[in-house]
Amino acid sequence: MAENLWHVRLSKKASRGAAKLPKTVRANLAALMKQMEIQGPVRGDWPNYSKLGSNRHHCHLKKGQPTYVAVWEERETGIRLVEVTYAGTHEKAPY
Is the whole-model pTM more than 0.85? Predict the structure, then answer.
């Protein structure tokens, strides 16, 4: 089973953004990352999930005002890696 797991990490920028998120949104981000570790980066079961390109994805962590989103990239060279590159408000999201 261990060979099917993905390695999920936050980039430095996403880590700084995550530290500023409200507690409930941080909990949602942690749940998303755990789910990606087990089931992979394609998360069609999360609100407003979409692919942004061949290996980039995003979804909403919390709807409403403000809306919080996560953006991540997947890589399968050597190890199966998902790097969350952004966690923060929808207005500043890099897509």
Answer: yes
